[in-house]
Specification:
There is one protein chain. This protein is α+β, with helices and mostly antiparallel strands. It folds into three domains: about 220 residues, 3-Layer(aba) Sandwich (Rossmann fold); about 70 residues, no CATH class; about 120 residues, Phenylalanyl-trna Synthetase, Chain B, domain 3 (Phenylalanyl-tRNA Synthetase, Chain B, domain 3), CATH 3.50.40. It has a six-stranded mixed beta sheet, with helices on both faces. The chain is globular, with a radius of gyration of 25 Å. The protein starts with a helix and ends with a strand. About 0% of the residues have low confidence.
Length: about 450
């Protein structure tokens, strides 16, 4: 029985937008927070066929245990099947060299996929709402992502659905209060250390002063962009598909046929994004269209510019790479990312010295040209903070680095010295000291 307008709107969205029926088998991602507990309550009250999955990321001590207890207790009361999994999130982040937020996302979706296959769930539902949508659009805009990213969070992505996406945080809270729904607050949501929280607590309030309807406008923009992207994708396919030829060992994209199209840059972006090229790297590729032989790299592919085509070859496990960097006044495209340089006044490096993928180096110790290459067995360096040499192979073992990630590690070389494992550890000999007179900041920007 439907008791409120909110429930009717939710049901309409599930049926018309997401195509759900009460026979659909749905796995709900429930954290114990406000949004997911309301989602659980709604699906149960409207008699959908549901199960619950709860992830304990072991990031908040006792609070994480209490979240799990709440979810399990409510599911038992409602007679809803309950799945739970504990993750060593911090350890996984350290081992893989990525942020805790990113590794938590990868862990939970991998587990959801496992549960879905094992139990034949039709859908996995997450509790993203319209405030999440407006924040995501702003984050994508600030990050310089492509036009398609302005649609924000899609209402459906394969089996993943977002049934609360048309509701605001305020509406969800109001429904929870009216129905005495029990939920727990995650204290980390108040911290502005994370980009999303900074957008939520600092940026959006300022924008709301300029326009009180900014949240609604951003959500409307996302909806329109989702529709527009569908039309653009259909049109662009008619142009691009005849230009792409897949061979056993390489892919050829003939760009000559649309070289004079008014949207050629966007078509090139669409053609290359599935091969891992994005942002600045695509701008550089477009600038080099008339330079046959020029080579670019993504995480998984090598792109070579021919006279009228892009030739793309997959990077395999035996791939070796070596390049020279003539000076510090340039950026260089490398397999997996882009290395940039910036001279920094000696007294200003300390505030951001712990930035991820950033190294501050005593510039007076460098002798250009520098080299960049794969690591090799027998390589050794002095890890930052240590006065003794360590084999790189032992260093990677200590970090428990998976083989596929170890094979992708690149080294910045000063002659025969390893200066920096890109995005990882600096050599102790090149650190900043009290005797340093000039500082070079190096940033390793990883392709997504």
């Amino acid at each position: 029985m439907i008791h409120s307008k909110f429930e009717q709107q939710f049901l309409n969205y599930c049926r018309k937008k997401l195509g759900l029926t009460t026979e659909s088998s749905i796995l709900l991602a429930v954290s114990g927070g406000l949004d997911s507990m309301v989602m659980l309550h709604l699906f149960h009250r409207l008699h959908f066929n549901i199960s619950v999955a709860h992830c304990n990321f072991n990031l908040r001590g006792i609070a994480s245990k209490e979240d799990e207890k709440l979810c399990e207790r409510i599911c038992k009361t409602l007679d809803v099947p309950f799945y739970h999994q504990k993750f060593e999130t911090k350890m996984a982040a350290e081992e893989n060299g990525i942020s805790i937020q990113m590794v938590a996302r990868e862990l939970r979706y991998a587990w959801f996929d496992e549960l879905t296959k094992k139990n034949n769930f039709d859908f996995v539902a997450t509790a993203h709402h319209s405030n999440d949508q407006s924040e995501t659009i702003l984050i994508n805009l600030i990050s310089g992502k492509g036009v398609s990213s302005l649609r924000g969070i899609p209402s459906q992505n394969k089996k993943t659905i977002r049934p609360l996406l048309s509701f605001s945080k305020e509406e969800i809270l109001g429904y929870a209060d009216e129905n005495n729904i029990e939920w727990r607050e995650d204290e980390s949501n108040a911290s502005i250390d994370y980009q999303r929280n900074y957008i939520r607590h600092k940026v959006l309030p300022i924008l709301q002063e300029l326009n009180p309807s900014i949240q609604e406008n951003l959500v409307r923009l996302g909806n329109r962009m989702e529709e527009m992207n569908f039309l653009v994708d259909e049109y662009s396919k008619s142009i691009l598909e005849p230009c792409i030829q897949k061979h056993p060992d390489f892919v050829e994209i003939n760009f000559s046929s649309f070289l004079h199209h008014p949207s050629k840059n966007y078509l090139i972006w669409l053609a290359l994004k599935e091969f891992g090229f994005a942002g600045n790297s695509i701008d550089d590729i477009i600038a080099a269209l008339h330079e046959p032989g020029k080579t670019f790299y993504s995480n998984q592919f090598i792109l070579r510019i021919d006279r009228a085509s892009f030739i793309l070859e997959k990077i395999n496990a035996d791939f070796t790479f070596e390049a020279m960097i003539p000076s510090s006044s340039q950026k260089i495209n490398l397999p997996g990312g882009e290395l940039t340089f910036q001279s920094t006044p000696n007294g200003e490096f300390s505030e951001s010295i712990m930035e991820k993928n950033t190294a501050f180096i005593d510039a007076s110790l460098l002798h250009f040209p520098l080299g960049v290459r794969n690591w090799k067995n027998g390589d050794s360096f002095f890890p930052l903070g240590m006065n003794q040499k360590k084999k790189l192979s032992d260093y990677f073992i200590d970090k428990k680095l998976p083989i596929h990630q170890k094979n992708k590690k690149l080294l910045l070389m000063n002659g025969e010295d390893i200066v920096w494992i890109l995005g990882d550890r600096l050599d102790h000999r090149y650190r900043i000291t009290t005797n340093t007179t000039s500082v070079l900041k190096m940033k390793w920007e990883v392709y997504e």
